[in-house]
Amino acid sequence: MVDIAANYSPTVGGTIEVAMVRTITFLLTSVALVAQAPDRPTPQAPPLPQASGVISPPLSPRNASYSIDARLDPETRAMTGTETITWRNITSRPADDLRFHLYWNAWKNTRSTFLREAALSAPIDRPGEDFAQMEVTSIKLLRASQGSRVEAPLDLTSAKRFVAPDDGNLDDETVMAVPLPEPVPPGGSLTIELTWTARVPRTFARTGAIGNFFFIAQWFPKLGVFEEQGWNCHQFHSSTEFFSDYGVYDVRLTVPRGWTVGATGVRRATSNNADRTTTHQYYQEDVHDFAWTTSPDYVERTARFEHPTLPAVTLRLLLQPEHRSQADRHINAARTALKHYGEWFGPYPYGHLTIVDPAYQSKVDGMEYPTLITAGTKWLLPREVTYSGPEEVVIHETGHQWWYGIVGNNEFEDAWLDEGINTFAAARALEQDYPRTYAERYVFGDFVPWVFRDVWLRRETFWNRLPGYRRAAKSDILADAAYRFNPVSGRAITYNKTALWLNTLERRLGWETLQRILQTFYSRWRFKHPKPENFFAVANEVAGTNLDWFFDEVYRTSNVFDYGVQDLKSVEEDHRFRTTVVVRRYGEAIFPVDVVVTFKDGKQIREHWDGRGRWARYTYTSESQAVAGQVDPERVLLLDVDYTNNSKSLVPRGRSAAAKWSLKWMIWLQDALLSWAFLA
User: Fold this and answer.
1) Which pLDDT value is given to residue 151?
2) pLDDT at 636
3) CB 290 within 8 A of CB 249
4) Which class is domain 563-654?
5) For the chain, what percentages of helix, strand and coil (3-state, to nearest 5) are there?
6) Sequence-ordered strand ranges (E) for 163-298
7) What confidence tier does 191 reach under pLDDT thresholds 50, 70, 90?
8) pLDDT in tens, 37-60
């Protein structure tokens, strides 16, 4: 999931009367003719691949497979479904029960754990008919493995109950437990059938409906992950996402005839029904989730990603009509991610990817699911704005096919293993093909973009989230379970801090070493469930040195890094200059840094400080006077929360800084005055 809000929130305009809206609409239509390039349709690729029905050699354990039939009624936002799950116990302990996620019950009422946590950051204000719910109406055990005394089919419906393993909230119904008549032994398996009904919410937490746009995610009863310690099946929390096992998904979706459907996997078949609906069958092997969308309004484009050493990928883009002219931008961004992630970490194994452009105000943008992602853009977005545009979002979400989709970490507990790694990797990929991207702000709500073309955003300072991290640096310890993070500031630790310390590792070890670390981690843990310790072990092995001292600081504490120059003096004594520089460690975290002193004759002296003490003093006697002292001059330590104290100069810098900020304030003031005058 992309988390742009950690650093940037567009300006939101106030309420405008109807007459003013009409005036603005007329003006915006004129602006659009200039701001948008002509509509150039993307070259059409061959039709989308159809699933052959032949099961391929497994890439994953395939121990949790689903066959689902679901029917959607858009008028009432009601959905009914039947699913058959084949589950295999791949641990060394027996399973006495089954545990299911019922995610949509997080919005059943305001007493759920999700909404109690969400209310800490923003009030939840929506009418009851916009809420959702999921009710399992039938549970039947169809088959059990040899050796079990279970006689199937067996109705287990009356035994179901809700549990709250994380916080004991008796009003939370997002986890359902179903006791079994006999335990499933290690290596044993069972087949269970569930029927259920659900109400689709108004789009909330990246799922739901708005108008004729439906995006359906976390929508079916889904098994947790059975581990050596028992079921890992957390309640749905407001600040975390999902964790499940790999399997084969065979899903049939019935929607109104003429509506376009996009989904995880490839289309196997379509059939028209007598009630003017169509059933779309999608199939995918070796994934741990399934999401889908439907709408009568989509504009569809297809294209191909081709590469001399990587497998070809069919790209399917489902666009909102008003974004037709941005088709190339979405597709080229997906190609960027497939290329660089494939070259750096390993090939994308699925052969197809669906990109969904969400409806305006649907709030489902910037999300990842196996072989399907949601993008995010604006109507009048200038072409030179790639950050906060489709390029940044598509690259990030496509990247999640590696870090979440293929390396299936536990996002409830260790969300940084995908969100943090992917934030770092996506910024690096974006920088390769889009080396310069401009800042932008919107005036009049989300309508008119104002682009600052005199500045561009750099990976190490903006895309990798230094401002967002700085505000929340001490809020949480990365080693704690992510679902326990502060709901308001926890994302800054998951995304921002991880991206910054990975970027710091790149600068300390070199990109080639860090790339091999990530590539090795990917190849060893693809289609598995790694823990943080697995990543650290790979990093130490590939780097050829023990990096635990670094991981202790960035992962196991909330200490902050802050190094600075406390004092710099260069005094003439007997026709020579005595120079003293004092450097300090203002923060608690420790990192080795260089100290550089520059003299008037151009000479530089570099010291290497292990950074462990609270301060260090360096003294020199020379023919030339010192002019500047600096800690970490190459800015290796990107986690330093206050870079303004890293240097001192004995040479006046004139009024350049004052002039720079004065001009910026004048631009901002002018923009505000123009906006107020227009609305007056």
Assistant:
1) 64
2) 96
3) yes
4) mainly beta
5) 25, 30, 40
6) 175-184, 189-199, 208-210, 213-216, 222-223, 225-227, 230-232, 247-256, 260-263, 266-272, 277-287, 292-295
7) very high
8) 333 333 344 444 444 455 689 999
For residue 344, give the 3-state DSSP assignment.
Answer: helix
pLDDT for 444 beyond 80? no
Q: Which residue, 565, 569, 564, is CA-closest to 587?
A: 564
Measured over the CA atoms of residue 413, residue 179, residue 288 and residue 320, the dihedral's sign is: negative
CB 385 within 8 A of CB 451: yes
Asked if the domains 1-51+295-558 and 563-654 are classified in one and the same CATH topology, the answer is: no
d(CA 263, CA 373): 9
CA distances from 402 to 5, 201, 370, 419, 547 (A): 23, 29, 10, 11, 24
Please measure the distance between the N-terminal and C-terminal CA atoms of the chain and give it in whole angstroms.
40
Helical spans, DSSP H, in 322-385: 327-344
Rounded CA separation 395/390 (Å): 8
pLDDT at 14 over 70: no
Q: What is the mean pLDDT of residues 62-81?
A: 97
554 Cβ contact list (under 8 Å, min separation 6)? 478, 497, 501, 589, 639
> Could you say which of 1.10.1740.10, 3.40.50.300, 1.10.390.10, 1.20.1630.10 is the CATH number of the domain covering 1-51+295-558?
1.10.390.10
Give Cα separations from 65 to 99, 246, 406 (angstroms).
15, 7, 16
Cα separation, 292 vs 253, in Å, equals 9
Phi–psi pair at 446, nearest 5 degrees: -100, 25
- The residues with which 561 forms a beta bridge, in sequence order, are 640
Q: Is 669 left (phi over 0), alpha (psi -120 to 50) or beta?
A: alpha
Q: What is the residue type of 420?
A: G
Q: Measured between alpha carbons, how far is 221 from 169 in angstroms, rounded to an integer?
A: 20
One-character DSSP codes across 641-675: S-GGGSEEESS--TTHHHHHHHHHHHHHHHHHHHH
* Bridge partner residues of 545 (DSSP): none
pLDDT per position as a tens digit, 631-653: 999 999 999 999 999 999 998 76
Residue boundaries of the structural domains of the chain? 1-51+295-558, 63-245, 563-654
Q: What is the pTM of this model?
A: 0.87
Check whether 221 has a pLDDT greater than 50. yes
pLDDT confidence tier of residue 120, bands split at 50, 70 and 90: confident
% of the chain residues with pLDDT over 70: 81
Fold of 63-245: Immunoglobulin-like (2.60.40)
**What type of residue sits at position 235?**
Q
CB 388 within 8 A of CB 366: no
CA distances from 429 to 154, 311, 345 (A): 52, 19, 12
In whole numbers, what is the pLDDT of the chain averaged over residues?
87
Percent of the chain having pLDDT more than 90? 72
Average pLDDT rounded to a whole number, residues 162-184? 96
pLDDT digit string, tens, across residues 557-616? 999 999 999 999 999 988 999 999 999 999 999 999 999 999 999 999 999 999 999 999
Which of helix, strand or coil describes residue 383? Answer: coil
The β-bridge partners of 269 are 281
